[in-house]
Amino acid sequence: MLEQIRIAAAEGLKLPRDVVLGEVLISFVGRCSVTIENYRGILIYDDKTIKLQARHCKLQIYGRRLHIDYYNHDEMKITGQIQGMEFGD
User: What predicted TM-score, i.e. pTM, was given to this entire model?
Assistant: First the structure.
């Protein structure tokens, strides 16, 4: 119910849903770079898998030679040979 109110408020006020709802934003640049915004924490980090906790889901990036170039409290950049991405609960 509260989620529906937030969605309606975002649409009515013409505000971006990611800001109002805290949705994860994912921006790929080819297969070698991805920027992720609004994540909550790093769950797994090695050169083949990076798993993150977002507000409403988990997000897994997998590939080869993965590396977190930078991260702060709400944004990170991952580089390497990105082979795929999955959402989970």
Answer: 0.78
